[in-house]
Amino acid sequence: MLYLKILFILLSVFLIQCSQKTSNEKKSKLNKKLEYITNIKSFNPESGELLKDKYTLLLYNFNEGRDQFVFDNSGNENDGIITNGKWVDGFIGKAIHLSGINSSIVVANKKSLNPSHALTIEMLINLSSNQHGGYPTILTKPSQLETGSGSPSYSFWIVNAHHDGFPLYTILFRINFKDNKEYDLDSQIPWKSLADEWHHIAGTYDGNKINFYIDGKLVSSKSYQDEIKISKEELIIGRNFWAENSSNVSMIIDEMRVSNIARSADSIKTYWDYIKFKYKK
Predict the structure, then answer these.
(1) Is the pLDDT of residue 163 over 90?
(2) Interatomic CA distance for residues 224 and 26, integer angstroms
(3) Burial of 253 (0-12, 13-18, 19+ CB in 10 A)
(4) Mean pLDDT over each residue of the chain, to the nearest integer
(5) In whole angstroms, what is the distance from residue 238 CA to residue 178 CA?
(6) What is the torsional sign of CA 245, 246, 250, 253?
(7) Which tens digit of pLDDT belongs to each residue from 220-233?
(8) pLDDT tens digits for 203-260?
(9) Please, which pLDDT band fits residue 166 given cuts at 50, 70 and 90?
(10) Sign (positive/negative) of CA torsion 178, 181, 185, 191?
(11) Which of 21, 39, 198, 233 could form a cystine bridge with 142, CB 3.0-4.6 A?
(12) 129-133 contacts: CB < 8 A, separation 24 or more?
């Protein structure tokens, strides 16, 4: 009997310790501080290429120069399949030209492409002055596709037709949130004033504010607090989810990165200020 009592006491102590350990681990996870903004300048000063860091979810340097795949240099294997795209000389090295006719880069959905607390999307683009659709889409991560709404978690698109009061002939950066609120920031200038030459665009969310930058300058900003809506669909570059030519964009794209943190205004400006003088547009 004494043996059983001792065994019972030891077992009880063990279970209490396990419970406390589990509780502490849960508290540690809950208290783990999320990072929302960084001032790190993650690019190669010799080549001008964007670099991966601990925040990088997807990184396309577009250096392949051949075949129908673009490889993700973030280490997350978010490789893209190119449809009707052409390898051309880019701002830095090679780039992809999307004609605007059934052309796109499609990336399979993964958890790494669905940041919820913070976000940066940045890229170098050269928009054609001839955009034939009403809503040419530069990039989108559509959600609720099964219901037909297609509300994207995040996207860049051009307003080329009157719709819902959006500023006509501008570029919009859109984020949808878990509470189903949707916010669009516009470029403040006509997209055609940016056409046929290289520009850097970036959209960020730091948990408190949505920002839209063009060539290192903040052009639009809006305060809002919520988590970004999670998308179960593919990441698409060059068209919207419905794959009609009305949503296809004609452009050349180079140096694209998606991050689960808001790159600071200073880091975005520093990158463009550096490469715009080092490389011919």
Answers:
(1) no
(2) 28
(3) buried
(4) 86
(5) 25
(6) negative
(7) 999 999 999 999 99
(8) 999 999 999 999 999 999 999 999 999 999 999 999 987 656 668 999 999 999 999 9
(9) confident
(10) positive
(11) 233
(12) 129/192, 129/195, 129/196, 130/100, 130/250, 131/100, 131/158, 131/160, 131/191, 131/249, 131/250, 132/100, 132/245, 132/248, 132/250, 133/100, 133/160, 133/244, 133/245, 133/246, 133/247, 133/248, 133/249
Are the C-beta atoms of 92 and 254 separated by less than 8 Å?
Answer: yes
Tokens representing 28? Answer: 């540690």
Q: What is the mean pLDDT of residues 61-78?
A: 95
Cα–Cα distance, 170 to 103 (Å, whole number): 22
Residue with tokens 């004033």, as numbered in its chain: 193
